[in-house]
Amino acid sequence: MSSQQPRSSIDTVPYQPPDAPSDDFQVMAGFTNAVPLPDGSYEKPTANGANGHTRQPSRTPTGLGAEPLSIVILGASFAGLACAHHFLDHTITHLHKTPTAPRYRLVIVSPSTHMYWNIGAPRALVASDLIKHDDAFIPIEPAFHRHRGHQSTLIQGSCTALSTETRTVTLELIGHQAQKRCSQLTKRASQAPDTSTPGTPDAKFQTLPYHALILATGSAAHSDLLSLHGPHYNTVGALNAFHARVSAAQRLVVCGGGPSGIETAGQLAAYLNYTGRWPLRKRVKRPKQIVLFTGSARCLPGLKGEAGRKAEAQLRGLGVEVRHHVRVVEVREGFNLTGRTDVVLSDGTSVVADLYLGCTGVEPNSQFVPARLRDAKGYVRSHSGTMRVDLAGERVFAVGDVAAYSRNCVGDVYGAVPVVMQNLLKDLLGYEVRLASPYGEGREAMEGLEDRVYVQRRVDSVLCPITRFGGVGLWKDRVIPKPFVYLLKGHDYRVCKTNLVAVNGMSPYRRT
Ligand SMILES: Cc1cc2nc3c(=O)[nH]c(=O)nc-3n(C[C@H](O)[C@H](O)[C@H](O)COP(=O)(O)OP(=O)(O)OC[C@H]3O[C@@H](n4cnc5c(N)ncnc54)[C@H](O)[C@@H]3O)c2cc1C
């Protein structure tokens, strides 16, 4: 080939400077993060040894020495654990497709070191021997022992702020170990607070940069008994306190006509007011009065009418007083020195309860998410097909109860996890390719990688154990016979599946 190539038409195209690479890109491609001086020039690099023979350490490691990029998962329950195991089992093995590909580490953040099996909460709250704490609270860290070869860290703490501009999360860390783990992650990126100098920020709050972020912070029930509120020992304490008071309580008031309220009222009546097993079942001599306020026209208003009617018949059969069209408007705990609760009702009356249980729904754990990323009810506005939080920048996803698409059931978690993980893989590979060839070549490596789209199942499947051996259930929109409710859920509230969820990241309703 001649070296005298004809001058190409490129000369005639006006010069377009390429887009400034992102911070991540600069680190990985070997640039420094030097800040220009006011006149636009850069400070001359200090030669090693020129400054009194003191070696100037580079603040930004580059190339192979660069820090791994953090894939941060906030939340470690059904959604967070499923994503974490999927990442370490599958995603990581499909990355590193280019010579300049970064290394990755998985960072899981959760205020609780244990997952709470809240599926079983309606029975666990009745008495300590029905579902033992060891079954209801599953330690998270041992569930990751099988991934020992990979870089992953569990940090105990809550996310208190998310900055989509700096691509960082601020964490409130619980305990010394969490502070140490987080400092180790952030020290090379100079984000860790310097606690050696007085007056510097507390090590309890640290800021962690993320390369990709999965929001899986779920939701919190109003009652301390029904979901985690911070570390798991808060819930353990609430359950113990409830168990201690339940035997002396005479009137128990449950509020909420949805599945949690129905199940809770049923489980309390079935285990506190009856002894023995069918057909030798006997009502106790001094049964407790259990009152359920549904707040609507019938039980289970969100489901087919037949399911609600059956649930009500079973509750009444157990002696539960079911009252419709009445809402609880105020709950005055400890309103007098007896420690009882005054429950003020929408019909102008009030009822004094020895124990009150609010099963009135859940709120998303999204207080740390910027308001523009949340809908009117506080749920994270993610794309209902791709699960990306488009307004939060690249590689940010939301899955599970915290995301707006979810109807707050585990079915909506496990249907969406493969979509999140496929689209995350695509985005991470896209970044690797851009890093290796910033001017657009090498795109063929991305061929065949399409966005996966989530399609929500429109049919209802709900199981509500009410009596010891029965309950009501809808399976794919059909009301199923009572024994199936017992077999599918009621016999042990699926605690036999905790390992499947915590260690393998799979659905507790998966057929194995
Ligand atoms: C009493 C009850 C019974 C239920 N029974 C059923 C059932 O039988 N079948 C069914 O399909 N569904 C049931 N559900 C719903 C089901 O529990 C939820 O859909 C499921 O828990 C959602 O999982 P998730 O991982 O999205 O969120 P969650 O389980 O709510 O987990 C959220 C995680 O995020 C963590 N977290 C919270 N805030 C922060 C923060 N700021 N920073 C970092 N981490 C944070 C929490 O510690 C936790 O690890 C029930 C719910 C309740 C309350």
Any overview of this molecule?
This protein is of the alpha/beta class and 512 residues long. 24% of the residues lie in helices and 20% in strands. The protein has helices at 23-29, 78-89, 121-124, 133-136, 176-186, 232-246, 259-272, 305-317, 410-436, 482-490, 498-504; strands spanning 69-74, 104-110, 114-116, 137-139, 152-163, 168-173, 205-209, 212-215, 219-221, 251-255, 274-275, 282-283, 289-293, 321-323, 328-333, 341-345, 350-353, 355-358, 362-364, 396-398, 462-465, 471-475, 478-480. The strands form seven sheets. The chain has a seven-stranded mixed sheet with strand order 7-6-5-2-1-8-20, with helices on both faces. It has a four-stranded parallel sheet with strand order 14-13-10-18. Strand 16 (341-345) and strand 17 (350-353) form a beta hairpin. The longest helix has 27 residues, at 410-436. The N and C termini lie far apart (64 Å). It binds flavin-adenine dinucleotide. Residues 74-80, 109-112, 118-119, 121, 158-159, 216-219, 221, 226-228, 260, 362, 365, 368, 400-401, 408-411, 413 line the site of flavin-adenine dinucleotide (FAD).
Give the neighbour order of strands across the main sheet.
Answer: 7-6-5-2-1-8-20
What class do helices, strands and sheet pairing give? alpha/beta
CATH topology of the largest domain: FAD/NAD(P)-binding domain
The appropriate CATH architecture of the largest domain is 3-Layer(bba) Sandwich
Distance between the termini: 64 Å
The beta-strand count equals: 23
Q: Kindly give the count of domains.
A: 2
- Percent helix range: 10-25%
Bound molecules: flavin-adenine dinucleotide
In CATH, the homologous superfamily of the largest domain goes by the name FAD/NAD(P)-binding domain
Count of DSSP-assigned helices: 11
- Report the major sheet: 7 strands, mixed
Q: What coarse outline follows from CA principal-axis ratios?
A: elongated
Give the DSSP E fraction (strand runs of 2 or more residues).
15-25%
- Residue stretches low in confidence (pLDDT < 50, at least 5 long) are 1-36, 44-58, 196-200
Radius of gyration: 28 Å
CATH class of the largest domain: Alpha Beta
Overall pLDDT, averaged? 85
